[in-house]
Write a structure and sequence with these properties.
Shape of chain A: elongated
Structural class of chain A: alpha+beta
Helix content of chain A: 55-70%
Mean pLDDT of chain B: 86
Distance between the termini of chain B: 34 Å
Chains: A alpha+beta (about 425), B alpha/beta (about 700), C mainly alpha (about 375)
Mean pLDDT of chain A: 84
Oligomer: heterotrimer
CATH class of the largest domain in chain A: Mainly Alpha
Largest sheet of chain A: 5 strands, antiparallel
Order of helices and strands of chain A: HHHHHEEEEEEEEEEEHHHHHHHHHH
Number of strands of chain A: 11
Distance between the termini of chain A: 6 Å
Strand content of chain B: 15-25%
């Protein structure tokens, strides 16, 4: 048993590692296509090059992978030569990187129009006051350079008199900023430390968005789960002990139709009936009135998920129940003269539920996939919607981080499934 | 006693029972016109080959024929009350209370996720309304009654935590809890090893006496039935063809089928030089295609026109046996003359003096075992090994047969697999004298010379998995010829046909697929495939143990014939001692990875014995109720091969250890010496030669030569 | 004589195949569910075939009357661009089931792809050889050639100027869903049989990598792949093949684990047969049945997925109509012209449900038949 658990845990760790490699290299923006996608095809090569530099893409790829996984703040700290720290910006609620100069003085740097460096000293409310920085430059390869944190919270390297041109997208269009740093390190603590960097789409830290999104998804998934499981197990057992009879056929076929219909088809049909024709329920699960998530809002999404999942779990439970009812020990119980109810509940159900638990836990991936679709269909502000929007925009950082979260959820439920299985199966527990 | 019965009501009485299964296109009559009765304290055996409807009768009694089976006609009376068409609820009350059942494979019969105590207790709480604690006490009592060690502890365990023999004891105890009037046992010892089987059979006989239960005992094994039953019914193709008291049945079988069956099994002590097995020709007809006359007619040596035209009725013979045969009075088994086509050509030379073809020296096979503590997983713990084969050394003369016997887990299969190269040995040498190759048994198959691979071939146990279901017979036999290039490609077909004919199969089998063959035919093809590359040595891993006795006899004859024709050397693994004795020239007895005794077959089965061989011989069921065996039973379970007992591996269970001077201290610490006897017979034991020679013979009639 | 010898098994094999096909057809019709499922699937296949030669209107032509409801002229209304929905629903079967559009690619792309494939085969071949002492040299040879092949071919491509030669885009028979499933079946079977038969480290490594793929919620993996590689029929096939392969491999592995315990595998081993012989000649023919049934289900999943991605606006590229995409385009006007959304939605739903009913019914009959 110890061995089994140990193997499960090792497997989870290796899986996460492999998944992270796969995600990072598939979603590596340095090949340029993703930059074009973000900036649009009208963008100039100079603009793309500037964005690439701001994203730190000239850093070797393995280094970037390590940064993405375990962070680069310690590397930046060494380059800057001062302590850096993350502080909460009260107006946006986001964490920002500052140089910690001690005694409550936190600073960032900015290169002014004239080429002189200003130091931005943080005030209590998160705003800053600019002061001349003085001569902070040091000598490197015959040039005067300086590493600090710029006003966007990135580690940046300036060279005196050699300002690069940065392009920044603002609401009025593209803005050329001269005198920008020549090299950037977008500061990140790494996925393993719970920081996936800054979203390309929203320009806000991903780790700020994901928890609220995930909480919303959890509510939806939990509601569906609570709804589906008891019903499905009940129907599955009923169908299983009546194998081949009319009630079994009916349950099985409805289950099959439910699972094999794509979520969006089911959802659209439900919307058509309940929202468009009958006008009982809203077609979107977006909280517009500010009243929070209500049962009314959640009904259609939960129903859609139920239709798909119910059938699957029923089929698994039924198959397992049918198998168990044919087992010799059930024959023993009947020949022992046990009443049928006792045979079913005492001898069959427990054995029959063992197999579906692991299968159902494996199925969690499909379930998450279904949630993604349902969230998009109903505009529900969950993690799935975030993944989708990131994918559409080409926000590789947002997509990567949120995909890792879904993978973590999937494999940890699988692990839980294994644990539960180990616990309820005496053959493993006592070996 | 026979007189009393007339006034007594039988516990179970079947009259003219016919059982039918509904299938997709029509009905299949599984069982027809079966009648018999069982009285209190009587043990009624039902024997027959697979598919003859033995179990179906049992299921019909408890009305558990599945959704598509039903009793078509006849009556089943239990203590005078009719069971056919009884309501489910009434039947349920009888089952487990008045009628109990024990069947094969106890592991499957017990619920894996309930504690043994809970499974036993519910029989009492449901049927008798007993309280939990009272029921528990009774369960513990019953477990100790069936000689289960440590019963208080056992009831808290799960089925997988105890051994197969113990599981069967639990099932038997569970069946006896309510002191049932009728106990139905369906092959209860078939899945068990011979020494465990012997202990369980002892138990059954004892319980029958003590509880005065009527027992219906179903088995395919004539020896087992001879040991536990008082009455025996022989079933064939859904009919009961003969019914008689056990001694009469074996001494004076009336029905030709019963006679045929008894001629198929080797007598313990018989060997292939002095006797022969006579298989019954043809095969059992499938239930949907039974002959209209006597069901046995097409296979019967005495069949006349009347047998093919008219179905015989059951007739009571003067001595009380009932037989379903038109001419039972006229048939004298002693006057039977075997048909020419099943007679074997006698052996012409004595192969036992040939030079050895295979010499095995100090062969060891250890497996690594995965530990389960955290230390083991991290690779820090001490590596533990299963010592599957320890220092095996022997020689096999060219053209002879070496039989290897032992109970499951004794390492006999591993030994053979290692020789052929399916497993790499841990240490040891082998010499193969055809080409004077000394090959390293530690090398894998791919490391071996192609010529050597060709010379060693194998025949397998399970007929259903010996052939690849996707290829025809011809393709599978032809493949070794193609691979080793022993036959030019354009002659492969004719060579395959020649082999098929040697297997008595014929050319029309060439294009058949395995699913169109019977078990015996598949086994013949398996033998043909092994012979296709013209090997010098064929290793047979229990080639007949999954077959019915009549088919088994035919396959053994085939192997003997092949050996006499091609001079092939055979290594023959089996757990059936009579078969090994009959078939082998030399025998090696293995226990827990160690060869305990080695020598010519006739020496092994006579004094002196190794104490383990003695126990085996005492346990083997003999199909002759007149033979008496000394009762020697081994205590405890086979120890784990991971940490086998020190010194002599058998010392923990050895019944003869007390004969050692100091109570056998030496057996625990020192490896025994090989004691040498006549003709290369050697025994691995600390007991001095004189002591070993002073034992009594186990089987009292064994000294006589075989009757036929 | 030789001729009759050669032909008789062939003939009998042909006859056997025919009779086994007949028995399967008979099996389908014994199950009412399978028959209904098959009817639905065949309906869509026929509709697709008809749409290749005839549709009421050109599915891509606009009549400049957008968002029309159902009428005698446009039975299922028109979409946002005024295209006939009925024609588009009919033609929507093509990309899924009947044709795959291969875009214009430089010749070098094909060469490199082919070389990569050969390289992978060589590397896979090399692995078992390395384990066997007398084949070790050959194994290393294979491994080195396999690894070297790809850069060499890329270099040769540059040298020969194959970049410049661009093959025009063309159409392959069979749709994206089918090719995707064929891809996952081949990839999964090879990996699964290898893992199952060889066991040990092969098993650990192969299954660990596949586990990592399985760990992804499927839709998320598709979104990642498509975000990274873009949209296209070939990319969709790749995505379906890669996401499906782990499931196939698991099944193939369990089959191999079961079959390898059979004695005929021991017999092959005692003949000293190679791993590939045992895997593909001894195990594969007996494992393929359940894998094929599973693959039919996978076609259903693939259609399901293509539809879902189309609905998300990340499906098969235009201009050919794709059901999921039609829904995506029509959704903003769901309230006013529901038919534009519901028609393709019902099409996808019915095709997937039909396939599932068919496979489920067939499977039930097969298992009953085996008993």
């Amino acid at each position: 048993m110890v061995r089994f658990l140990f193997q499960s845990v090792i497997s989870v760790v290796v899986t996460v590692f492999l998944v992270s490699i796969l995600l990072f290299f598939m979603l590596d923006p340095s090949d340029g296509e993703i930059l074009v996608k973000i900036l649009g095809i009208e963008s100039t090569p100079a603009q793309r090059e500037s964005l690439a530099r701001q994203l730190g893409l000239e850093i070797p790829v393995l280094q970037r992978y390590a940064d993405w996984m375990i962070g680069n703040d310690f590397r930046a700290r060494r380059l800057i030569g001062q302590d850096i720290t993350q502080l909460n910006n009260p107006s946006s609620g986001d964490l920002e990187w500052w140089i910690d100069q001690g005694e409550g003085r936190y600073v960032q740097y900015q290169l002014g129009e004239g080429g002189e460096l200003s130091v931005l000293v943080r005030n209590e409310d998160g705003t800053y006051t600019a002061e001349p920085a003085g001569d902070v430059w040091w000598e490197e390869d015959g040039k005067e350079v300086f590493w600090g944190i710029d006003d966007e919270g990135r580690a940046a390297k300036w060279i005196k008199g050699e300002g690069a041109i940065a392009y920044v997208s603002t609401q009025t269009g593209w803005q050329e900023i001269p005198g920008a740093p020549v090299q950037y390190i977008p500061l990140v603590k790494g996925v393993l430390r719970g920081d996936g960097g800054v979203s390309l789409r929203t320009n806000r830290p991903i780790s700020n968005t994901i928890p609220t999104r995930a909480a919303n998804t959890f509510i939806l998934a939990g509601a569906a789960f609570i709804f589906v499981m008891p019903l499905a197990l009940l129907f599955g057992i009923i169908a299983g002990i009546n194998e081949g009879k009319l009630i079994d056929r009916t349950i099985s076929i409805f289950g099959l139709i439910g699972t094999s219909t794509p979520e969006f088809v089911t959802g659209l049909i439900l919307i058509f009936i309940f929202a468009i024709q009958l006008r009982w329920l809203p077609a979107l699960a977006i909280d517009t009135a500010g009243g929070g998530l209500t049962v009314r809002l959640l009904t259609l999404p939960v129903l859609t998920l139920t239709a798909v999942e119910l059938g699957y779990v029923i089929r698994m439970t039924r198959a397992s129940m049918v198998d168990v009812m044919k087992a010799p020990y059930i024959r023993t119980a009947i020949i022992k003269g046990m009443p049928f109810r006792r045979v079913v509940f005492r001898h069959a159900v427990r054995n029959a539920l063992m197999a579906p638990i692991t299968i159902i836990m494996l199925h969690i991936n499909y379930f998450i996939g279904g949630i993604v679709v349902v969230e998009i269909l109903f505009g529900y502000p969950g993690l799935g919607d975030y993944i989708y929007k990131s994918a559409i925009f080409g926000d590789v950082y947002g997509l990567g981080a949120s995909a890792i979260v879904t993978v973590l959820v999937a494999i940890s439920t699988r692990l839980i499934g294994d644990l539960v299985y180990t616990f309820i199966n005496p053959r493993i527990r006592y070996s | 006693m026979n007189m009393d019965k007339k006034f007594e009501q039988p516990v179970l009485k079947l009259e003219d029972v016919a059982i039918t299964y509904k299938v997709r296109n029509g009905e299949i009559d599984a069982v027809q016109n079966v009648s018999f009765e069982i009285f209190k304290g009587e043990s009624h055996g039902i024997v027959g080959e697979s598919g003859c409807g033995k179990s179906t009768v049992a299921w019909a009694i408890v009305n558990f024929l599945g959704a598509n089976g039903y009793v078509k006609s006849g009556s089943i009376k239990f203590q005078g009350q009719e069971l056919v068409n009884k309501s489910d609820e009434e039947l349920r009350r009888l089952r487990g209370d008045q009628i109990a059942m024990v069947y094969q494979d106890p592991m499957q019969a017990l619920n894996p996720s309930l504690r043994l105590g809970d499974q036993m207790k519910e029989v009492l709480t449901v049927h008798r309304g007993m309280s939990e604690s009272e029921a528990e006490d009774r369960c513990v009592d019953m477990l100790s009654r069936v000689y289960m060690p440590d019963p208080e502890n056992v009831i808290k365990r799960f089925p997988h935590q105890i051994s197969g023999g113990q599981q069967q004891r639990v099932v038997i105890a569970m069946a006896l809890l309510n002191n049932p009037a009728l106990l139905i046992m369906d092959e209860p010892t078939t899945a068990l090893d011979v020494t465990v089987e012997a202990a369980v059979l002892d138990l059954i006989a004892e319980l029958r006496r003590d509880f005065d239960t009527a027992i219906m005992y179903i088995s395919h094994n004539l020896g087992v039935v001879a040991r536990v039953c008082t009455q025996v019914g022989v079933m064939y193709a859904g009919e009961m063809v003969e019914r008689a008291p056990v001694r009469d049945l074996y001494a004076d079988p009336k029905h030709p089928y019963t006679q045929g069956l008894l001629r198929c099994v080797p007598k313990l002590g018989g060997d292939k030089a002095s006797s022969q097995l006579y298989p019954i020709r043809g095969r059992v007809p499938p239930p949907n295609n039974r002959p209209s006359g006597c069901v046995y007619g097409p296979r019967c040596d005495y069949a006349r026109q009347r047998c093919l035209d008219e179905r015989p009725e059951v007739r009571q013979m003067p001595d009380g046996t009932s037989v379903r045969c038109h001419f039972a009075e006229e048939i004298d088994p002693a006057a039977w003359i075997p048909p020419e086509d099943i007679k074997l050509t006698p052996a012409t030379e004595d192969v036992t003096k040939n030079e050895p073809i295979l010499i095995i020296k100090d062969l060891k096979k250890y497996y690594d075992v995965a530990g389960s503590s955290l230390k083991d997983i991290l690779g820090l713990g001490e590596k533990r090994k299963v010592k599957a084969v320890e220092n095996a050394s022997f020689e096999v003369p060219r053209g002879s047969t070496l039989g290897i016997v032992g109970e499951s887990g004794c390492g006999k299969s591993t030994l053979v697999k290692t020789i052929i190269g399916l497993e790499n040995a841990t240490a040891g040498q082998a010499e193969f004298n055809v080409e004077d190759v000394t090959f390293d048994v530690t090398s894998s198959l791919s490391g071996r010379d192609k010529k050597l691979i060709q010379e060693l071939q194998m025949v397998f146990q399970n007929p259903d998995s010996t052939m690849n279901p996707s290829y025809t017979v011809g393709q599978q036999i032809g493949r070794p010829m193609e691979r080793f290039g022993t036959v030019p490609p354009d002659q492969i077909r004719s060579e395959v046909v020649r082999l098929l004919e040697a297997m008595r199969l014929g050319e029309n089998y060439f294009d058949r697929l395995p699913r169109q063959l019977s078990g015996g035919e598949k086994q013949r093809v398996g033998i043909a495939r092994a012979l296709a590359s013209r090997p010098e040595l064929v290793l047979c891993d229990e080639p007949v143990s999954a077959l019915d006795v009549s088919v088994q006899a035919a396959i053994l004859n085939l192997l003997i014939e092949i050996q006499r024709e091609f001079g092939t050397t055979l290594l023959f693994i089996a757990h059936d001692l009579s078969v090994v004795r009959f078939f082998s020239d030399f025998v090696a007895v293995m226990y827990l990875g160690q060869v305990m005794e080695f020598g010519p077959a006739e020496e092994i089965y006579q004094l002196p014995y190794h104490p383990y061989t003695e126990a085996l011989l005492s346990a083997v069921p003999i199909p002759d109720p007149s033979v008496t065996q000394k009762r020697i039973r081994l205590e405890g379970n086979v120890p784990s091969a991971i940490s086998p007992p020190s010194g002599c591996r058998f010392h923990t269970r050895c019944p003869r250890r007390k004969l050692m001077p100091d109570g056998g201290k030496k057996c625990e610490t020192e490896l025994p010496p090989w004691r040498e006897f006549n003709n290369g017979h050697r025994i691995f034991c600390h007991l001095p030669k004189e002591t070993l020679e002073s034992f009594d013979p186990v089987i009292s009639k064994a000294a006589e030569p075989a009757a036929d | 004589m030789a001729a009759t010898q050669a032909s008789s098994p062939v003939q009998s094999r042909g006859a056997k195949l025919l009779s086994s096909i007949q028995s399967y057809i008979a099996l389908i019709f014994t199950s009412r569910i399978a028959t209904i499922g098959l009817a639905i699937v065949l309906f869509w296949v026929v509709v697709g075939l008809i749409s290749l030669v005839w549709t009421p209107v050109d599915p891509n032509a606009s009549d400049f009357r957008p968002n029309q409801p159902m009428s005698a002229e446009n039975w299922l209304g028109t979409d946002r661009l005024g295209r006939d929905n009925l024609s588009r629903v009919m033609a929507g079967t093509q990309v899924i089931l009947l044709k795959t559009r291969v875009p214009a690619l430089p010749l070098s792309g094909y060469f490199t792809g082919l070389a990569g494939l050969i390289g992978i085969v060589l590397i896979i071949r090399a692995i078992p050889m390395l384990e066997e002492p007398n084949q070790r040299l050959k194994g290393w040879g294979n491994l080195i050639v396999g690894i070297a092949l790809i850069p060499v071919v890329i270099f040769l491509n540059g040298l020969l100027g194959l970049q410049a030669i661009v093959l025009p885009n063309f159409v392959l028979p069979l749709g994206v869903a089918l090719w995707g499933v064929i891809g996952s079946l081949s990839l999964g079977t090879v990996l699964g049989l290898l893992a199952g038969y060889k066991g040990g480290w092969y098993d650990q490594i192969i299954m660990q990598i596949l586990d990592a793929l399985i760990a992804f919620p499927r839709i998320v993996l598709y979104l990642v792949v498509i975000t990274a590689l873009g949209q296209g029929d070939l990319i969709m096939i790749f995505a379906i093949a890669v996401t499906g392969a782990p499931g196939v491999a698991r099944l193939a592995r369990s089959q191999a684990l079961d079959i390898k315990t059979r004695d005929y595998i021991r017999a092959a081993e005692t003949r000293g047969e190679s791993i590939w012989f045992i895997m593909f000649r001894e195990i594969w023919p007996n494992a393929i049945g359940p894998l094929l049934v599973d693959s039919m289900l996978r076609v259903g999943y693939a259609i399901f997925t293509i539809g879902t991605l189309g609905f998300l606006g990340r499906g098969l590229p235009p201009p050919e109509p794709d059901w999921g995409n039609m829904i995506n385009v029509a959704r903003p006007s769901f309230g006013t012209v529901p038919v534009s959304v519901l028609a393709p939605a019902v099409a996808i739903g019915s095709l997937v449900v039909g396939l599932n009913l068919f496979v489920d019914g067939l499977n039930e009959e097969i298992t009953r038949y085996q008993k």
